[in-house]
Amino acid sequence: MIIFANYGFLWLLLLVPLFPVLQGIALALRRRRIAKFGSPESVAALMPSVSGVKPWVRTVLFSLAFAFFVIGLARPQIGAKIREQKTKGVEIMIALDVSNSMLAEDYSPNRLERAKLAISKLVDKLHDDRIGLVLFAGDAFVQLPVTTDYVSAKMFLSSISTSSVAVQGTAIGEALALSIKAFSSQSENSRAIIVITDGENHEDNPVDMARQAAEMGIKVFAIGVGSTEGKPIPMNGELLTDKDGNIVVTRLDEQTLKDMAMAGGGAYVRAGNSEFGLDPIVDSIKKMDAEEFNSQVFEEYDEQFMYFFAAALLLFVIEMLIGERRHRIRLFSKKENI
């Protein structure tokens, strides 16, 4: 596979067909000037050393040299072969609450954006571990299957909003069930689920699901986002209200999250503005048993521009060494008689 790092230079290749055209125009104009001095046959007889082929040879060489030079400027690269790589680490599924209550501004700028920032910092600290992402509100779906492609993980993370899940609510139990299914490994003590939510208005029983996860060797951690006194939910420049016109206030339900984490054999941490709470959880995960994974990675690209520059230089030198006159080679010379 060949790619070009500076592919914009390839537009210059459109100039290559112009060189023979310009050469043809130049030769036609020269013949027209020569015709003023006499018939072409007579003038050609007076200039036997002038070659009609060499100008075209020089044009072809110059065109090729220019093309190679432009390709060199575009920095062709080859490689990117997929190869298997064995790594050791754990699998981490992050279940992120994207319900409207996560728009509350008891964190800067709000609960959801603060959580996304913390997850992004977590990804930066990972090396050989796999990470996946499940989004949930009233429903749940896998946003990112477990992977070691941290660049893609951060890309998917940046696109998350409260509109990522259409059904509103907080179905933590469903998010746990989906996270369990999303793991690629079945090894015990090498898998962990981190639930980030305000825990409010849960529509199922996350404690029972966390207990099932623990029985399968999966640790369940929880990070509570929000304040116990509660905050209103800003939406579309206004505060969210219920059907009676009262302002909706969202509060952190810590007890449910504590019970869930205890049943899941993990730990509960309440997120703060300065320290979100992922660091102590990550420290606990690092103590888990690392499993060997087979990962597919891309090899680095090899630069090839120097070969095209070398070919261009060689052709430029040859083009300059070729003159426009015809060389006469005498195979036999006559000896004068004395």
Write out key terms for the chains shown.
338 residues, six-stranded mixed sheet, 10 helices, disordered C terminus
Please trace the helix and strand order, writing H or E for each element: EHHHEEEHEEHHEHEEEEEHEHEEH
Number of strands: 15
Quick one: overall form? elongated
**Gyration radius over CA:** 36 Å
Q: Report mean pLDDT, rounded to a whole number.
A: 85
Q: Give the strand content.
A: 15-25%
**What is the first-to-last residue Cα distance?**
73 Å
Which regions are unreliable across 5 or more consecutive residues at pLDDT < 50? 329-338
Q: How many alpha or pi helices?
A: 10
Q: Structural class, judged by helices and strands?
A: alpha/beta
Give an overview of the whole structure:
30% of the residues are buried. The chain contains 10 helices and 15 strands. Helix content is 37%, strand content 22%. It has a 6-stranded mixed sheet with strand order 6-5-4-7-8-13, sandwiched between helices. It has a 3-stranded antiparallel sheet with strand order 1-2-15. A two-stranded antiparallel sheet has the order 3-14. The protein is elongated. Strand 10 (234-235) and strand 11 form a beta hairpin. The chain has 338 residues and is of the alpha/beta class. The longest helix has 20 residues, at 54-73.
Set down the secondary structure blueprint:
Layout (H helix, E strand, L loop, with lengths): L1 E3 L13 H18 L4 H7 L7 H20 L2 E3 L3 E8 L1 E7 L13 H15 L4 E7 L3 E8 L2 H9 L13 H11 L8 E7 L8 H10 L2 E7 L6 E2 L1 E2 L2 E2 L9 E2 L3 H10 L1 E6 L7 H9 L4 E8 L3 E2 L1 H17 L17
Parallel strand pairs: 4-5, 4-7, 7-8, 8-13
Antiparallel strand pairs: 1-2, 2-15, 3-14, 5-6, 9-12, 10-11
Helix pairs in contact: 3-10, 4-5, 6-7, 7-8
